[in-house]
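User: Once you have settled down, look closely at the record that follows, taking as long as you need, and be ready to discuss the fold:
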Amino acid sequence: MSGVVDLAAVKAAGEAKVKAEQARAEAARQGGGGAVPPSSLVIDVDEAGFERDVLQRSAEVPVVIDFWAEWCEPCKQLSPLLERLTQEYGGRFVLAKIDVDANQMLMQQFGVQGIPAVFAVVAGQALPLFQGAAPEAQIRATLDQLIQVAEERFGLTGVAVDAEGAEGAGAEADAAPAAVPVGPYDALLEAAVQALDAGDFGGAVQAYKNVLSDDPGNTEAKLGLAQAELLARVQDMDPAKVRQDAAENQSDVRAQIAAADLELVGGHVEDAFGRLVDTVRRTAGEDRDAARVRLLELFEVVGPDDPRVTAARSALARVLF
């Protein structure tokens, strides 16, 4: 999704988790403030406010985007359902409504081919959810999965909602997130994120490896290491030459791998996965294994719960077996 998913989004998981933890800790120090009124959970968004209302907010809470238009009859069925579910989920996500007639550029950036179309943005990363007026049970299942991924991968647990009255005050107290305890590897993980921000990819790689040497199953460190290694590989690439080499040398596995790395960093996730699946299909022996291993590494960068990873895994299985 050119223009939405970019280089910064590749490392967004670690950054978003740190920012979310800092925001929760700050709210706890200030007495648990930061609750929002229910009316703020559903917002109208235009191109001018997209960065503030969607991209920046997605570092705190998943943002579900409803692309709609006044003339769209299925939209008139889906939009009220999404608004009702947004209130029912009580701050686990917010709903951004985008009128495609008034915001053609956003429609093009997300690659929307028809409406209604529903996407999510989590920590700056755009994810397609579904298109059309889907059944409520399917929508609920999709939202549940989105919330789970946002919490497990990005540490986003939603926002506290300020309900009216004494009963609402009690519910707010129950929903307010507690202060986040400091884990044994938080300092190293924070150092790795700072190294990524500074462009010190080698330092970030080492910091993540230091965590994994003591805790091999640390999910955040594994994700961060995959991202840092990818950024380190592409930082000195000449994009034009990489693309030319890949186009002119279809049988050169190294050229195809380099092009796939560049595509992923540029946000062209499906293109990167498709290129490597095709390379696995066309090769054998060590070349096939090199393409397969790199594809698995890129799966780690994007995350196992991403639907594009699921689709690419199935495609890989078909060419292997």
User: Anything to note?
Assistant: Strands lie at 42-44, 63-68, 94-99, 117-122, 125-131. The longest strand covers residues 125-131. The chain has a mean pLDDT of 82. The chain has two domains: 7-175, 186-320.
